[in-house]
Amino acid sequence: MHDHRNRTIDYLKGVAILLVTFGHCIQYFEYANQSFWTDPAFKSVYMFHMPFFMALSGFAAGQSKPASVGTRIRRRSVALLLPCFTWALIYALLSSTFGHGMESFGELIARHSTALWFLICLFASWLVVLILEELKWDRIEVLAMASVTILVIPDFSIMAFFKYTFPFYCIGREAFRRGWRPGAPPKIAEVVVMLAFVAVFLASLVVWNDRSYVYVSGSNITAGNLENIALRFVAGLGGTGAAAILIGYLARFFPSRFVERLGQGSIYIYVLQIFMFSVVYRLIPGPMDMPGATIAIAVSAVLVAGALEAVGSLATYCWLLSICLFGRTGRPA
Question: pTM above 0.85?
Answer without folding.
Answer: yes
